[in-house]
Amino acid sequence: MSGSIAQGTSQTHGNTHILHFTVRIPRPMEDLWPAVATPEGLAAWFTAADVLEPRLGGAVTLRDLGGGQVTAWDVDRVAEYTVEGGGRIRFHLEREGEHGSALRLTHEFQGEEESERRWRTRFERLIELLDSPHDAAGPGSGRPAAPPEPSDPLPGQFT
Predict the structure, then answer these.
(1) Which candidate among 25, 62, 77, 155 keeps its CA 20 to 30 Å from the CA of 71?
(2) pLDDT tens-digit series, residues 53-76
(3) DSSP of 95-159, one letter per residue?
């Protein structure tokens, strides 16, 4: 399995820059959602989320960018964070084929801090993370850990 990163596009309007990327990943949206919408998932490939209230209007603090608010939230589809110093970062997931997903990024920011190259490097880490044979997911994997197998039957459980 491997993903692909389409050539990013960039627009500038005065001091405002807008980057767009599309990343195609041969995994279902449900596998990709935790990577863009949970503190563990974001920390594994992008930046630590010291605070993330997963709801519209919730607080968010992205360690390398600053604090702000969740400005769009549609579970399994859209996570958008607007942070002081980091601008607006929107992750939009779409189904692509039977088992694939497309991650569409829009990053609107002021100044010169971000670049297409930095986002490409981040997306390469994300693809590596999702490609790795660690299907025993866990913290930092971008996916929730599987519940442990019980070693002894539970009361009332048939074996």
Answers:
(1) 25
(2) 999 999 999 998 999 999 999 999
(3) EETTTEEEEEEEEEEESS---HHHHHHHHHHHHHHHHSS--S--TTTTSPPPPPPPSSPPTT---
